[in-house]
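Retro notes, item 3 of 5
We never archived the inputs for the adenosine monophosphate complex last cycle. Fixing that now. Sequence and ligand:
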Amino acid sequence: MRLILLGPPGAGKGTQAKILMDKHRIPQLSTGDILRGAIAAGTALGAAAKEVIDRGDLVSDDIMVGIISERIDADDCADGFILDGFPRTIPQATALDGLLADKGLELDAVIELTADTDTLVGRILNRARESGGARPDDTEEVVRNRLAVYRKQTEPLADYYKNHGLLRTVDGLVPIDDVSAQIERVLG
Ligand code: AMP
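Structure as it came back at the time:
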């Protein structure tokens, strides 16, 4: 099964991706985790991405498409994958369509988790306080920018995938188990 989890920062994409991963035995491909891993490892990619991420802006489409194209070729993606945090722009979505077509693969569904901005800011700042090791991009100013970038650049993907007949929208503000139950229902 090949899925995309779409939704603003703090909507619970990572949590739901992990639940789906255990249930369906397919990997979660989180571009945010891949980029943070590159920063921690001190690679050239990490160095190029760090400032952009710390501001809450988006890393270039070319870099992100290259990362995902390579990642979905790996053996562990043979039975599918869950994309978490990618695509984030219309050019990324069209590039993904092209590279999946080249590989002879199709998406099964795009699950959109919805939530309002003020709840998300509160959630992310709470999560940062509770986890102790707050991400550098979890300050209120940067979180608000990440959400503004989402509304402007990523939210249009909902219509894009609706037009492709792939969009399944789920309320991201209910308890975790209820979100999972909704997802299983829409996946049928
Ligand atoms: P996330 O963990 O998904 O919230 O991602 C953290 C940050 O990594 C984002 O705010 C972006 O700066 C960057 N990032 C992650 N995925 C992408 C992507 N698909 N396109 C561009 N930038 C990304």
